[in-house]
Amino acid sequence: MKNRIRVLLFIILIFAQIIINRYIDTLKLNIDLLYLIIVYISIKKGVVKTVIFSSLIGWATDFFTCGVIGVFGFSRVVIAFLINEVFKYIDLSKNIFVFLFIAISLAISNLIANIFLYFIFDYKIILSLIVYQPVITGFVGMIFSIFPKMKKVLNVY
Questions:
Q1: 26, 39, 72, 103: which one has the fewest Cβ atoms less than 10 Å from its Cβ?
Q2: Cα separation of 43 and 138, whole Å?
Q3: What CA–CA distance (Å, rounded) separates 64 from 47?
């Protein structure tokens, strides 16, 4: 039963991300729901599965955002590997740590991707991808972890 709910939650997050990216100009809201899936997989699975899934999700993020395959794929793999190694030392039972963990790791991942885009296409480093999107995504991840039923289903703690 828990696996079905997890799969359903992941499918909902993927479709919600597609809808958000499709209507990003209208919504003026930039949440990276796919990153929440990367965080979950990085915490629950081993290094090999973490690298495989984060690269696939990173390539999907590349497809949705910049059109250059590999930029977000690389940054997501680097951060997912670090999450896999660092989460053991962080108390994720407290909501503020969940928020900070997601927000800081997403900010670093987006900074890595923005640096590559700066050198490849001379894009400016965008403050909204380094500050606003990680804060909003961290807040959404924290909301998922507030509910006791969700904690039980995700079984992260």
A1: 26
A2: 15
A3: 25
